[in-house]
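User: Show me a protein chain along with its predicted structure.
Assistant: Here is one chain, sequence first, then structure tokens.
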Amino acid sequence: MFELNVTFFALAIPAVLFSGMSKGGFGSGAAFAAAPILALIVPPAAAVGLMLPLLIVMDFTALGPYWKKWSLRHSVLLMVGAVPGVILGAMIFKAANPDVLRALIGFVAIAFVAYRIVVRLGLLKPREKPYAAPVGLFAGAVSGFSSYISHAGGPPAAVYLISERLDKMSYQATTVLTFTVINLMKVGPYAALGVFTAETLRVSLMLAPFALVGAWLGVVAHRFVSERFFFGLTYVLLTMTGTKLLWDAFT
């Protein structure tokens, strides 16, 4: 399906490390960056299929340090809301051709960068009061959908959780718990649609050590290191890869 050459590993290894660090809590929200990067060199379905086992490894690695530090109410709302989002994502994924998937992944990558810039400029202000439960369910549905298409469920959940004014530790723990469950939800539909192959699983196994190292580094960096450089590099990578994927899809 794709060639395991120097170019592949030169892109895949840093991408998996970045994602692992984000899953561990450093640069939260950028964990999906590996899927757009990999989609530059392998078919989009293979990219997301290759990444899901790695994301699950990262989830379980990060779960321990954040155990029971989450807001269970917010996690449950997001997870319940994610169910219809995952179902809709599976329906579109089944019907879409590779160029449509490239366009969707590219669009989400650019949208993520735009969202982070808006937050950085202070144009998106947290609400003074918590949202009602239906808003959490809706955020979960959008997260479930975008997570299924390109493992990019972080931004919708982040908009909701930031508005709920959770402290840094609770926010990260809630994110880890939520996406551990959402990623497990995706295993069955991915398998049914043939997204997993012997080749993607073999490559996932080869990259798993980098996922573990990245997640561990993220847990450490979350406590001690500024995220400015990490996010800046992530924004550049996502802008470049998103633009390239959109160009490939429409040309």
